[in-house]
Amino acid sequence: MNRVDLNCDIGEDFGRYTLANQKEILQYVSSANIACGFHAGDPSVMRETVKVALDHGVKIGAHPGLPDLLGFGRREMAITYQEAYDMVVYQIGALQAFLTIEGEKMQHVKPHGALYNMAAKDPEIAEAIAKAVYDVSPDLILFGLASSELTKAGEKIGLRTAHEVFADRTYQKDGTLTSRKQPDAMITDQNEAVQQVIRMVKEGKVKSRQGVDVLLRADTVCIHGDGEHAVDFARFIKGELLKNGIEVKAFI
User: Would you say residue 159 has pLDDT above 80?
Assistant: First the structure.
């Protein structure tokens, strides 16, 4: 049987700002990436999200982003190697404190938004993130875009590295995600999204927007928790994966 981890970005409420149904999605995923206060989330949201994730038996990872609440961490910033390293260490530490109180270990680290995309292409930023994760704990798993600079950096430093693919995003022929600035960046049809995921898991291929097949490794699939129909999609994709002989299980 094929096997894949199903992960979701979560804990992205902030103060009085609430993204509906984020916690309901935990019924259908095997790993959760919890925002650590830079792009979204706050201490109370982090604490509550950790508890809910543990109640559902979901493995927990830190989701460090750029310090940009207004832009939800999706706008690139000019940062140095040291700044990238420091902000990742800081955010991992914040979430780990809440996990320690619960007697639980962190499974993984997955950068968010612009930081994730920058690390996918920039070897220096990728190396800074990988070193930050390794220095905090070499037992942590680094989630990164499949076949990107980030996964290369993680493997080079000696981390267990999960190659991530996306259910609701389109791809370019170089294996990168289509920019959200483009009208064809998102896949809104559930059936199309699921068929893309099944092919990535079973065949290791995805059709790019240029019509060319791209080879990739699918260890973990990301679904977004902030969409209008996020819970329905999570339920649907898990059901379809199981129907197609693909087990949904955490990376560990």
Answer: yes
**Gap between the Cα atoms of 6 and 221, Å rounded:** 5
Sign, CA dihedral 122-127-97-100, equals positive
Q: Return the closest-CA partner of residue 49 out of 62, 66, 65.
A: 62
In sequence order, the β-bridge partners of residue 250 are: none
Note the pLDDT tens digit of each residue in 122-132: 999 999 999 99
**Alpha-carbon gap, residue 54 to 102, rounded angstroms:** 9
Give SS3 for 8: strand
- Residue appearing with tokens 């990535």: 200
Rounded to whole angstroms, the Cα distance separating 248 from 46 reads 25
β-bridge mates for residue 221, sequence order:
6, 165
Average pLDDT over the chain reads 94
- Give every CB contact of residue 176 below 8 A, 6+ residues apart in sequence: 117, 120, 121, 145, 148
CB contact set of 212 (below 8 Å; sequence gap of 6+) = 173
Lowest average pLDDT, out of 132-146, 176-190, 191-205, goes to 176-190
- Digit-coded pLDDT (tens) for 43-76: 999 999 999 999 999 999 999 999 999 999 999 9
Q: Which residues contact 233 (CB under 8 A, 6 or more apart)?
A: 167, 168, 190, 193, 223, 227
Three-class SS of residue 167? Answer: coil
Sorted by sequence, the CB contacts under 8 Å of residue 84 that are 6+ apart come out as 115, 119, 125, 128, 129, 132
